[in-house]
User: Fold this.
Amino acid sequence: MTADALKRLAERLEKADNVTILTHARPDGDTTGSGLGLCYFLRSRGIKANVKNSDGFPAMFGYIAGEYKDLDFGEKTVISVDVADPKLLGSPLEEEYAERVDICIDHHKSNKLFAKENFVDGDCCATCLIIFELIKLMGGKITPLIADCLYTGIATDTGCFMYEGTSPAAHRAAAELKEAGCHAAAINRDMFQTKSRGRLLAEQRAIGTMRFSEDGKIAMIAITNAIIDEFSIDRAELDAFAAIPLNVEGVKIGITLKQQADDPGLFKASVRTVSADASKLAARFGGGGHVRAAGCTVKGTLEEAAEQLMSAAKDFV
Ligand SMILES: [Mn+2]
Assistant:
């Protein structure tokens, strides 16, 4: 974010009071860390603040959300964090807040600029990185709890600092957050290494479906409702499966098909690439996303969906 925009945001927050912070639905590490980090910081400044989302905080973020409690106040300012589109607030928050967000803080290039004031930096790795810079500019103290919040979002949105777009600023922020007392090793273990037993067994089954084409350059796995039901895993855990096909040596395009719970004849496809433009491949099916990570939906049986995607992917290797 430009120094100017960050300064305007800081000035705006100095004057804010009785703040409701909104995260997106099915909250991930970045929206959760941004929301809670900003909330704890504002409270430390004597500004009343709460964090709301449509689904509650997932148990995996208990180390930052566990002690969180709502305060009682009449709301005056509404801030969204890491929310690119008011639709992503989910139900019921979308109905309640879509039209009346005062300040939007985000890092998605696709942001719909739906708030009264929008502070969007599409080149920033994580919304938590914007919040980090904001707190520093405002001369705030980064407590170990706030450091854990912000580290969580930076680590998760950069794939533990492995994605191409991971900026020097993200590494510097991580260093400062470590100095501020964040529990980086424990967070990394929880976010990137620890899996539920059901998830690992479901991965095993999904890996069992792996098929290749184009001399091993394209790999595909499928997660069917049968697999999900058998191991009763949370659908939120499935997002991480998209990385599996690219783990295989030589694979340039990885596709993960996920059967939809409410429509077994519909598959959500996640496309991950090493160098090809994933968003162009997804666009052929009416989807979109980023250059190395995109998604779309395809109708049909599993075989039909797989065949359509595999044949389209051939044009990209
Ligand atoms: Mn994010």
